[in-house]
Structure formats: C-alpha cells, structure tokens
C-alpha cells in the first residue's frame, strides 16, 4: 500500500476511473456472479486524508548498529528506489539513490511499514503500515521528497487495507479494503461480547474490538510470573477461562468480505469499487492491462488460491486458473493485453511459468507451460517495465536460483519464451524482485551470513550492492560469525521424506551431545530457508544447537507435501515433530535428555501440541503466538483469516469434533514440562487469549508456565527492542530449563 502545487488531469484507464462527480464512491460495477450483491457488504469508499509531514533526516533518531533493508520498489528510470529499513528500530519507509549513499527517511512515524510501491510516473510512493504494530493495516502515499503524505484507506482502527497494483498511467492505486465490522456476534464461544456502543474491550481478545487508543500505546512489555495471567501490569484478568464445551461459534461472520477500490492519490477522481467478495479469505489486484480493460485478481483461501481475469467494463470474469500459495504477486499482462504470464501449480506438483493467450474480450484461447524445473517451485515472477523480459526465481531445496527469459522471442509465438540466462547470486535467498528502469532489476537478498539487503542487476551481467544497504558487520560479536547451517534429511514414520537445517553451536566437538531446540516455522505454508536468523544466532551463542525442519504442510516440497496435513493428516504432523527430534539425536549431535521445542504462529500451535502429544520427549517449550484451541481461535480471529483457515484446519461447524481433537487444550492434562508462551498484545490473527488460556490451564495443574506479552506488537514482532527482549527471554528460559 512533493506537494509542488501543480495540477494534472486525471488520465483514467478505460472503464476504470470516472471523473469526479460522475460516479458515486460506493457505486459498484456489476457483481461477481458467485459473490452476490456487493451492496450487501460494501461500506462507503475510503477517502484520502491529508496528514502532517513526517519526513525525517538521513539517519533515524535511533540508529542500530545492525539493520536490514528489504522490499524495494524503484522509480521508472531505476535511478532511485523506495524500500523498508529498520535502522531506526522499526521498519520504516526510506528512499535513496541506487548508485550513491544518499538516503532519506520519508515517514518518521513509529508504525511499522509492510509494503511499498512507487507509482509508474514517479510522483507518488504508496505504502502499507500497521498502526500500533497490530494486524490491522492502512494504506498511505507520500511524495518522493517526503511531502504530501496522506492516508488513502484504513483510518478506522477496526478496518484494514493493503496494497494492490498501480494503474500503468499512475491515475490510481488499487487498495483492498476490509470495512469496519458490522455489529459483532453476541456470543463468541459462549462468552458475551460488548455492544459496539459500549466501551470496547482492550487488546481485541476473542473477537472484540480494539481499544480506542490502541495505536497510541506506550510502555514496556512484562514477563509474567506464576501469579498473574494478564497482558500488562495493573490490568484486571480478562474474565474466566474459555469453555471448550461452549456452543459452537458461527462458521462465517456476518461482517466478512473484502473490496478492491481504485483510488486516485491526487483526489481528482472518486474512488471506484472494482469488486466486492463476501466471505473472502484474500483478494488482491495484481495487475491492470494498459488500457484498463482487464484486471488480474488473486483470491481464495490458503491451498485454493486462484487467478481471475475480470473485464472492468461489465465486471465479467473471463478466465480463472488455480495458482500456488506464497508470493501474492502472481502475474502480469503483456503490454498489448493479449498474453497473461502467471505463476501457477495447477495440475502439477511444483509451480511453473504459464502463458495464457487472450482474445480481445479477455477470454483464454490457449494455456501453456513455458518454463518449469523438475522438483523446484517458481517462487517469484517479475517482468520488466516493457514486458519483454521476465525474471524467474526458483526455489531449489530452500535456496534461490535466478534466471532471465525473453517473453517475446518471435512474432509468431507471443506466448513463448526465449532461452534462460542464469544470474549468479551473492547470497542464498531472493525475497523480492522488481523492475528498475531499462534492463535493470532490483532484488532483495538474504543469506545465512548476512541480513536482508538490496542489490541491483544490470542486463543480467553483474550484481551490485547498494551503498546504503544492510549493515550487519556488528550484528555478531567479533570472532563469532553467524553459523552456516547444514541440511538434514530424514524419513517420517509413514515414509514421507522430511528435511531441515541444523545449526551447530560453536566450540563443541562434533560427537559431543548438545542441548538442542527443535524450531518450527509458521504458516504452516512457510519454509525453513538458509537465511540470517537472529533468534538462532542468539541460541547457538548460548551453546544450544538448533534443528529447524520442514514438517508436512510446508512450502517448497511440492503440492502433495503441502496438502499432507489437511484435516486428520495433522495428527501425522505431530509425529513429524517427534521424528525430527529423534533424527537430531540419531543422525546429529543432539542430547536426547536435553531437547526443547519452540515455534511461532502455526509453529507455536505445533509446540503446544508436541508437549501434550509427546510429553516424554521434550524437557521444555517456548510457544510464540500459537493457537491452543481451534474453536476459540475461529471465534476470535479476523473473518478473512477464519475463511482461509477453515480449508486448512477444518470447518468450525461441520468439523467441530475433529477441531476439538486437534486442539492442544483438549489434552492439557498430559502436559508435564515447563512452558513459556509469548504473544503480541495486538495480535488479531491469533488472539492473545490462545496463549493466556494454555498458560492459565498449565498453572492450574501445577506446571511452571509463564507468559510474555509484547506491547505494541501484533502477530509479527517488528520493533527492535521487542525482538531483542523476545530473543533474550526465550534463550534465558531454554538455558535455565536445559540446565546449561
């Protein structure tokens, strides 16, 4: 997602933007036939709001010795790029010259920045922020010199908005908008929720609205001991423990739905509602054809994403194709709008590059695979500004391989590609690719020895690091460089191949048994990658080994592997964790008497599950932002997250019995080991109550359990101070309970 006093005419793409006053801001195009009347859920369109100037000096007020730079978006000629950098202690919006060391802070506010997109004409930079560090986001724009900052969507703390693409003539930027909810459920999992007219409960627990001052909170997090359960000192506990036997929460919330608007940042045209989908799990506008006649949308829940080509003149969907999870920027139209390039894994194990030949009405004439690699996913796809060169990043066993292909090698075959040209990479993983002028690409790279940084490639010949890019020379103490992980492969008890990365703490003989932490990533559709991980560095610096596996459900190993944990297959994922721990002992140097399990998000859920399904295996655990009961999770999470999660975990009405069986709270009596839970106070993805109820139940059974709630954080911990506190607290806990 400079005020130079000039005015311009609103050059609207055909069929997309109307002149001011000719189209009401809430008036929709004809609805998608599968979604019903968009007026059922659409609210008033967001209106741009001017904001105070918030630019900053070249250096942020508090500069870290180590920082990263990521998510670049270049101007049209590729001489400058906007990017996200945490040198000020929180991810903020910066811009700088590609070839020089001149950088500037464009927004000094403390709200973390999530996405950045520079307009094609270079006049605006649109970006998404997370007020208060929570999950609700808003879209802003600013001039490249830091002036003219304005809010485009998401002004209500209960609403959320994120970026889509720019129109090619820069007349509008697409914004996906989740309007403030309608009156909330009267009951969530059997507990009353205040009326919308009443004083809202703070922290957005179990589906209630956030406190009015949620974006302006300050203060420090608190590590709670055995006497308290609440998220901050001086607050009353938030009511009784959740009753897992309470009546079922509704499966679909009445306020579900996402809308895509086209918004003119100059305010010369009214916002145009492109589409609304009720009960939507995701919805993003990825591209518009140059004439504005066709739109490329990505929609659907996890594991069932799809690309949709939509005519803007009559709102007719002309083509649909399943696409892979992962990067949301799934494809792009050719300059003439007659070819659609897509990253898809439809009817195949691994994602490939598809070419879809379109007629003048947007109907598909032919669909073909034009670039593929056996056993490797096409992970990132980007096209040059002229649409004639595509950059393809392949996921090869966790590392990235980059190549360039010509998308129009002959006039006779506009839907074919030329020979691939490999581009050598200085680090292991590419996290983003974007066009940057003629023949130039900007890339965000990370690796096991370096923090994320921004590089540029010219004509695919050389890779040059931007002078202001990540600073990480001081990230580790002198004489102790980051540990380079080694791959481990194993076979699960049911024969499924598994793999992961093992980090060996320095200073110990290879055959000497070591305390080991099994760390589980989130998603579950994420993948463990060989990148610089400050948490792992903290742990190995304390003498702890780390084994970070990909259990079933992870990306990067084929579609069947991703789907292997659906429904009752999740019980096998619990066994995967135990099998990985056993392999770390048998094939690696892990000490079987000093094993711990730790994870974040879905990995936090697996951590809760592991200590109640395999209580004899681990000595302690650290669960971060994890679900402990699927029924309360569905009752409290965001409606679009619930829509997506139902496909992955089970439906909260039809599969209630399965969800209860899969919930760690249903086996809490089996818990035997001490546990630390960590949560962000503004997490509305997995509400803090999920950690609170597990810690409360553990203490009631005499188990040593503590809760660390991080102030001004959501599902991801984005502030440097909080991230350091989390790493230290987790390492201290593990060090103490593994008796180092």
Automatic annotation (TrEMBL):
One GO MF term: serine-type endopeptidase activity
Alphabetical list of SUPFAM superfamilies matching this protein: alpha/beta-Hydrolases, DPP6 N-terminal domain-like
Keyword Protease tagged: yes
Gene3D superfamilies: alpha/beta hydrolase, TolB, C-terminal domain
Gene Ontology biological process terms in this record: proteolysis
Alphabetic keyword roster: Hydrolase, Protease, Serine protease
Segments for region (Disordered): 1-59, 217-239
Peptidase S9 prolyl oligopeptidase catalytic domain residues: 540-738
Hydrolase is among the record's keywords: yes
Pfam families given in the database record: PD40, Peptidase_S9
PANTHER family: DIPEPTIDYL PEPTIDASE FAMILY MEMBER 6, SERINE PEPTIDASE S9 FAMILY MEMBER
Protein name listed in UniProt: Peptidase
Organism: Streptomyces caeruleatus
